[in-house]
Amino acid sequence: MDDAHMQIGEVAARTELSLRTIRHYEEVGLVIPSARSQGGFRLYTETDVTRLMVIRRMKPLGFTLDEMRDLLDITDSLDAAPPAESTEREALLQRMGTYEQAAARKIEDLRTQLTRAEDFAATLRSRLRKAPGEDTAPSTASART
Fold this sequence. Notes:
Elements: E1 6-7, H1 8-15, H2 19-27, E2 35-36, E3 42-44, H3 46-58, H4 65-79, H5 86-130, H6 140-143
Helix pairs in contact: 4-5
């Protein structure tokens, strides 16, 4: 096999995505294997891995499959040779900027959620330390009232 191609298992290990997830992204048209082996195995390139990493990074931010597809189309157009017309390129960059702004907002929302979750965990720790009989962990039965 050519060094430039990887089978799905190696791609899964590198991207920390499951085989099922990678196959799903293929089914919905986000990442298509660059080739197939003589035995029919999916073969991927570094470009395919890069696309999967974009998707993996967008997923926890709540981007939809359509938004992922749109951003990948934008990056494909920007990376295409020869360069797009100046006005077309500017429109693509503006659309990409919209995604960057959306990502920044979503990251800030996640930071807020994380802060609240950390505060909640700290409250629970504090209550546990102040609970009577601190030498013994509270039992499940005594916690139910």
